[in-house]
Amino acid sequence: MCEPGPGDADLNDMLTAAARVPDHGKLAPWRFIIYRGDARQVIGQKLLEIAEAKGTAGSEAQREVELSRFTRAPVVVGVVSKAALHPKIPVWEQELSVGASCMNLVSAAAACGFASQWLSEWVCFDDDAAAYLGAQEGERFAGFVYIGTPTQAPFERPRPNLDDIVSEWKEG
Ligand SMILES: Cc1cc2nc3c(=O)[nH]c(=O)nc-3n(C[C@H](O)[C@H](O)[C@H](O)COP(=O)(O)O)c2cc1C
User: Fold this and answer.
1) SUPFAM superfamilies under this entry (predicted)?
2) Quick one: which of 69, 87, 162, 171 is 20 to 30 A from 156 by CA?
3) pLDDT per residue as tens digits for the range 109-118
């Protein structure tokens, strides 16, 4: 994907869709962080620093991957899960709502004419990277949705055969 990314109006529509998902108990167990413009280069420098400190950016190629991680798309949206223990609503249901939010964001991006990709990668699971990217105590990233102008038609890969994943319930 390439420039341009969605402007404020499109991004607002996409995030409205992302926040319009089934949400048992109206807990809003998700929030969104936007990364765009020069901030993406700043992030790359810091991710490289974190990766080097952990010994995971030894080669020039790995260094370049870290530096350019957030410049692969004009706009990146971090979807933060705020799922937490609740007296009535299981964490599992809250996490499913966060997943639905990510998927709505991907679908809304497509509906607005943009390409997108939902990625986790190491930055989702590394405490230092996640904190730097904005996750607060008790939060975690469900993923980062990279959004930009499509440069090619979506590549379709083989999907599961419905016969293998669909069954009709019968007693016993
Ligand atoms: C929670 C989650 C995390 C993902 N993280 C990655 C990732 O880190 N790297 C990756 O190549 N694909 C990742 N994917 C898969 C992509 O989002 C996407 O499914 C894949 O690029 C192929 O797209 P398609 O399934 O629409 O063909 C992730 C998917 C989900 C649901």
Assistant:
1) FMN-dependent nitroreductase-like (SSF55469)
2) 69
3) 999 999 999 9
